[in-house]
C-alpha cells in the first residue's frame, strides 16, 4: 500500500513554512510539550516486569547475595525513559516506609571512572559532598545511603561508559560484585548495544545475572508488532492534539503510515518519534491543521536521510 501523488500534496495550510510562524515562545512551548508526552512503549512491558520481579525478590532477602539484570537496547529504544518511569511507578505504589527509596536511578557520565560512579550514586541520594573523598570513602558512603534508604534495585544507566578502559572495567566489575555479594542491593545494568557486548563478555558479572531483559526492536514482519505500533501511534497522535500541538489528529495509525514509520525507524519507536517530531514542526510552520503525509515525507527527507538513518524515502517510491 502506498500513497498517491495527490495524497502527498498538502491539504491544509501553506505549501511551505513561513517565517512569521517561527515565534520563539511558541516554538519553545511546542518543544517542551512534545518532550513531555508519555505513551507507554509496548516493548517496555517485559523489561519492566522483569526488573520488578528482581526488586521484589531482593526486598525479601536483604543481606544475602543479590543479582543483576541486564537491560540494553539500541539508541532510541527508550532505556532511560523506562528506568525513570520504573522508579516513578514503584515509588508511587507507596509499599515502603517513610524515607525509604525502593528503586533509585543513576546515570553515568561519559568516560566514567569507578570513582565518578560512586559520586553519581551519591548524587542520586542527594549527598551534598558527593564529589569529595577517596574512592573507598565514596564507596562506603554510597553503600550506607543504599542501605539507609532501603533500596532494593539500583538502576545504573549507560554502563558502557564504565568499560571504556580495561582498568576501569575491571574495577567496575569488582564494584558491582561487592554490591551483589555483600547483599547491599540488586542492580539493573542499562546500556546500549555496545554495553550489551561488554556485559556479555564479562564472565564474573554474567554469573551473577538473571535472565536478560533487553529491549527488543519491533519486527516489521510481525502482524502483532504492527498492531502494537499502530495502537501506540494512535495514542501518541491523540496526546499531541491534547497538548495543543495540532488541531486534529494525523491518523498516524493508518496501516500505510505504520509500515513506513516501522521501516524508517528500524523497529525502534524512539527513532519514529524523532521523525514525527520533525513532521510536527514542519506542519506547524506552514499552519497546517494536522501532520499530513506531506509533512512526514519532508521529515524523512530532512531528518532521517540527513542523519544517514536510511537510503531512500518510502513515500517517494513509485
Characterization of this structure:
This protein has 318 residues and is an alpha/beta fold. It has two domains: 118 residues, no CATH class; 163 residues, P-loop containing nucleotide triphosphate hydrolases (Rossmann fold, 3-Layer(aba) Sandwich). It has twelve helices and four strands, in the order ααβαβααβαβαααααα. A four-stranded parallel beta sheet has the order 1-4-3-2, sandwiched between helices. Helix 6 links the parallel strand 3 and strand 4. Helix 9 crosses helix 10. The longest helix has 20 residues. The chain is elongated and about 65 Å long. 41% of the residues are buried.
What is the CATH fold-level name of the largest domain?
Answer: Rossmann fold
Radius of gyration: 22 Å
Distance between the termini: 11 Å
Q: Specify the number of helices.
A: 12
Order of helices and strands: HHEHEHHEHEHHHHHH
Strand content: 5-15%
| Overall pLDDT metric | 92
Shape designation: elongated
Q: What would you call the structural class?
A: alpha/beta
Spans where pLDDT lies below 50 across 5 or more residues = none
* CATH superfamily placement of the largest domain: P-loop containing nucleotide triphosphate hydrolases
What is the CATH class name of the largest domain?
Answer: Alpha Beta
Task: Compile the SSE list and pairings.
Layout: H1 24-36, H2 45-59, E1 68-72, H3 79-92, E2 103-107, H4 114-124, H5 135-148, E3 153-157, H6 166-181, E4 186-191, H7 193-200, H8 203-206, H9 223-242, H10 255-265, H11 269-285, H12 293-304
Parallel strand pairs: 1-4, 2-3, 3-4
Amino acid at each position: 500500500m502506498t500513497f498517491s501523488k495527490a495524497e502527498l500534496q498538502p491539504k491544509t495550510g501553506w505549501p511551505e513554512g513561513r517565517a512569521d510562524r517561527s515565534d520563539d515562545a511558541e516554538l519553545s512551548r511546542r518543544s517542551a510539550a512534545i518532550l513531555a508526552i508519555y505513551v507507554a512503549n509496548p516493548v517496555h512491558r517485559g523489561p519492566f516486569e522483569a526488573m520488578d520481579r528482581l526488586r521484589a525478590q531482593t526486598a525479601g532477602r536483604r543481606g544475602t547475595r543479590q543479582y543483576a539484570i541486564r537491560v540494553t537496547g539500541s539508541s532510541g529504544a527508550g532505556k532511560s525513559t523506562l528506568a525513570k518511569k520504573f522508579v516513578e511507578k514503584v515509588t508511587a505504589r507507596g509499599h515502603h516506609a517513610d524515607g525509604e527509596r525502593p528503586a533509585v536511578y543513576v546515570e553515568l557520565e561519559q568516560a566514567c571512572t569507578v570513582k565518578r560512579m560512586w559520586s553519581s550514586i551519591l548524587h542520586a541520594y542527594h549527598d551534598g559532598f558527593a564529589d569529595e573523598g577517596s574512592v573507598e570513602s565514596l564507596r562506603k558512603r554510597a553503600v550506607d545511603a543504599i542501605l539507609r534508604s532501603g533500596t532494593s534495585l539500583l538502576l545504573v544507566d549507560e554502563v558502557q561508559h564504565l568499560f571504556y578502559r580495561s582498568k576501569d572495567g575491571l574495577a567496575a566489575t569488582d564494584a558491582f560484585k561487592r554490591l551483589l555479594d555483600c547483599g547491599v542491593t540488586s542492580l539493573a545494568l542499562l546500556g546500549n548495544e555496545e554495553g550489551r557486548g561488554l556485559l556479555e563478555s564479562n564472565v564474573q558479572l554474567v554469573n551473577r545475572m538473571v535472565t536478560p531483559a533487553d529491549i527488543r526492536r519491533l519486527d516489521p514482519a510481525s502482524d502483532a508488532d504492527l498492531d502494537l505500533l499502530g495502537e501506540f501511534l494512535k495514542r501518541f497522535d491523540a496526546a499531541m492534539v491534547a497538548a495543543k500541538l495540532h488541531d486534529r489528529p494525523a491518523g498516524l495509525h493508518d496501516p500505510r503510515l505504520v509500515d513506513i514509520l516501522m521501516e524508517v525507524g528500524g523497529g525502534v519507536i524512539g527513532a519514529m518519534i524523532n521523525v514525527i517530531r520533525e513532521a510536527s514542526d514542519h506542519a506547524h510552520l506552514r499552519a497546517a491543521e494536522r501532520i499530513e503525509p506531506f509533512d512526514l515525507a519532508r521529515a524523512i527527507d530532512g531528518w532521517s536521510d540527513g542523519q544517514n538513518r536510511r537510503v531512500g524515502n518510502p513515500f517517494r517510491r513509485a
